[in-house]
Design a protein that fits this description.
Number of strands: 10
Largest sheet: 6 strands, antiparallel
Radius of gyration: 20 Å
Structural class: alpha+beta
CATH architecture of the domain at 8-78 and 99-167: Roll
CATH class of the domain at 8-78 and 99-167: Mainly Beta
Helix content: 25-40%
């Protein structure tokens, strides 16, 4: 991503929050002279400062060359949406733009053994089923069979680039106008992005967030 100090952050806590809130990731590697990308859910490893747990379906592990010591790029993206300069205060300069949060995470995947893979599969199911009215609790016998078609991964992140672009370069009135516009019904309605902007504004001025 193009570096912009106003939008950049080196805070691993913000990366962990992004992964927790948006656990659908793109895994990119270069293998046999080709670029390979796959899309999978990820969880944070609770036993590591910053590492991802996931699994891929076979034969993705062969396509990526996992287990051969090569690093991968994992892209995680938050809410994003279009911002019109017509929403700024009169006379404020600006071009059409896009607000977003995105992280580029780099690390070398570790291939898990069968026991760890089943544990990760069980954790993934439990995590995403927890808010279902009648949640599925993975039967371990069935899960062990299903896990045979997957390869579990732990990806310790050794470096990352995080960009939180939420109109930080605009005056407070324009920022509020953008938030209001994103909450209005219409083609650009995006209340979740508006909430991200409000949270970024609170954090920027040192106010507590809703979860503090």
């Amino acid at each position: 991503m193009r570096h912009n100090p106003r939008h950049a952050s080196d805070d691993p806590a913000l990366v962990r929050r992004l992964v927790a809130e948006h656990p659908w990731a793109t895994i990119v590697s270069q293998h046999d002279g080709d670029l390979v990308a796959s899309h999978y859910p990820v969880l944070l490893d609770p036993d590591h400062p910053l590492a991802l747990l996931t699994h891929v379906g076979r034969p993705d592990e062969t396509l990526h060359g996992f287990g051969q010591g090569a690093a991968v790029l994992v892209v995680v993206q938050g809410h994003h949406g279009y911002v019109s300069p017509s929403w700024y205060v009169p006379g404020a300069s600006g071009a059409p733009t896009w607000n977003f949060t995105a992280a580029h995470l780099h690390g070398v995947p570790q291939v898990l053994d069968a026991e760890e893979n089943l544990r990760v599969l069980t954790s993934l199911v439990a995590h995403f089923e927890q808010h279902v009215d009648d949640p599925l609790w993975l039967d371990q016998t069935w899960g062990a069979q299903a896990a045979q078609g997957t390869v579990g991964l732990r990806i310790p992140i050794d470096r990352f680039t995080l960009k939180v672009k939420m109109s930080q370069d605009k005056d407070e009135t324009s920022v509020q106008n953008v938030v209001d516009a994103l909450r209005r019904p219409g083609p650009y309605e995006h209340p979740a992005l508006a909430s991200d902007m409000e949270r970024a504004r609170r954090e920027r001025v040192g106010l507590p967030t809703e979860k503090d």
